[in-house]
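Single-chain item
Fold in token form
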Amino acid sequence: MFLFNNKQQILVRNLTNRHRVFQDCCAILLQFLQICIDLGRKAYLLIAQAVHNKALAGSSPASDFGEFLQLPKTSHFEIQQFDRFIMPHFSSQNISVEQNHVLMIRMDNAKIISHILKAINFKENSVFCCTKDGLKVTVEDMKSVQLNAFIEPGIFQSYVVKEEEIKFQLNLTVLLECLNVFGSSGLQSGTSPALKLYYNGHGTPVSILLEESGVITDCKIRTVHFDPVLDYDFGTSNVIGRIIMSSECLKEVFCELDSTSDCVQFSMSPDSANFRITTFGHSGTYHVDIPKASDVIESLRCTSPVSFKYKLSLMKPSIRPLGIAQKVSLRIDDTGLICFQFMIKVEDNHNCYIDFYCPADVDFEEDE
């Protein structure tokens, strides 16, 4: 009886040892597979960069900066993107699903698009409009104040649109949180995450893949039904006043405006030597005159005297783009509609544009 028990214990110990050896082998195999996956990612990024260097860059979207930034309306830019950007897991279904994408965007530096979208994030809901000419993101409030960000196709390493026009609405705040999942440091902070964004059509979520230093984040953002946004008809023939000036100067002026004033007035005239910005606060009327001949004004064209007032609270969303723009174009049409277009320089000498629209304060005009 004693001998049987002893043999049984030896058998149990042998089985336990074999189980431990099997576990150790599995652990080594998993480590080996992880090393292979990491090497595959690095090899892919190197190949993708080589493909990008051979790709042809497209032309920029249309701009409102006149002859200085007059750009063609169409772009034939299209780069064939890789079948796989990042493989978070092994699945043959991913390859078949990729063929259903109507929109596929890839860029090496996600901070660029995050930087632009943050400047227009004054309301949560945003409408994305994607065409061959580029990406347009619109945020508006009360069907009056509107901000539009234009991102040209050449900024992306791959930009594929399979339909003439693709539109969807999503929560811009949630999108920015996803884009900044690795941190919200600036464009000059060294490493930046690579981005892949794709969309399969109406009713499907927007999928985002971010990769930085081998760490992968997969996000899906639900899209919702949206009402059409305003399409401001800002024809050149209706513009009666136009200025191209330094955005830094205009930002300083806006920061010094009297906060007790309910409105701000913009005035210019062919006979005046200054561009005037006026507020009407508790302590009195406050004027800021910027000479036409100063270095901060690049050009000023005025066909007739212009003087319109705007609610200061509605003008506040225009301050954030001023902080990242190099130049700003200010236009006013004969109805008092004002448009700021901000020119923002990004990598590889590309430009992005943000348009801000605000109607004149009719109540103040009628009181006069």
Observations:
- DSSP finds eight helices and 18 strands in the chain.
- Residues 1-8, 50-62, 66-97, 364-368 have pLDDT under 50 and may be disordered.
